Amino acid sequence: MLEYNEITVRKYIVFEGEPYEVLSSHVFRKQMRKPVNATKLKNLISGRVVEYSFGAQEKAAEAEIESRKVKYLYNSRGEWWFSEENDPSKRFKIDDAIIGDAKRFLKANSLVSVDMFEENIFKVALPIKVELKVTDAPPAVKGDTAKGGNKVVTLETGATINAPIFVSEGDIVRINTETGDYVERVSNK
């Protein structure tokens, strides 16, 4: 159990029976009253953000968050299918809302990390950098650097990103999954 003043930023707590991440906390005392910890909490399952002030006598249980590596298999009609890392027969699906923006860079048979609370998956995290093949890139036109030397290319997952003019179809590029930006060209055809 965490005391009221131990409920700090980046801790996971159980509040009203559900897991929450502490986004901000501020312990203070108003005049002659007892100290309080004014927090902003994000529900890990629904994403809802609430503000709550913990009094000096209140405690909160620390949430047991489990992280596990799983293998992405495929998606069909908004259902994203995964399996255990070493046992492809143990398959399960994850809702589109939980995957969120990560689906732009999900490639079949790639390993991702999932965070769970009491066997409920609430977050899918890709590696920070992934390598993807360019499936469509407009040709570079001489003198076309007035726009900054970038063009929009399509990756094998269907995502589009801005890349330098020299990137062509068939190249393998490294992408930062947190920002969605081009990092470097790994190999060219």
Structure, explained:
The protein has 189 residues and is mainly beta. 2% of the residues lie in helices and 54% in strands. It contains 1 helix and 16 strands. Strands 1-6-2-3-4-5 form a 6-stranded antiparallel β-sheet, with no helix packed on it. A 5-stranded antiparallel β-sheet has the order 9-8-7-10-11. Strands 14-13-12-15-16 form a 5-stranded antiparallel β-sheet, with no helix packed on it. The mean pLDDT is 84.
Entry summary:
This protein is mainly β and 189 residues long.
Q: What is the strand arrangement across the widest sheet?
A: 1-6-2-3-4-5
Shape: elongated
In percent, how much strand structure appears in the residues?
over 45%
Nearest-angstrom radius of gyration? 22 Å
Order of helices and strands: EEEEEEEEEHEEEEEEE
Helix content: under 10%
> What's the rounded overall pLDDT mean?
84
| Number of DSSP strand runs | 16
Largest sheet: 6 strands, antiparallel
Structural class by sheet pairing and helices: mainly beta
What's the tally of helices?
1
Distance between the termini: 56 Å
Low-pLDDT parts are none
Features:
six-stranded antiparallel sheet, mainly beta, 189 residues, five-stranded antiparallel sheet
Please outline the helices and strands:
Elements: E1 2-3, E2 12-15, E3 18-28, E4 36-43, E5 49-55, E6 59-62, E7 65-76, E8 79-84, E9 91-94, H1 96-99, E10 111-117, E11 120-125, E12 129-136, E13 150-155, E14 160-164, E15 172-176, E16 181-187
Antiparallel strand pairs: 1-6, 2-3, 2-6, 3-4, 4-5, 7-8, 7-10, 8-9, 10-11, 12-13, 12-15, 13-14, 15-16
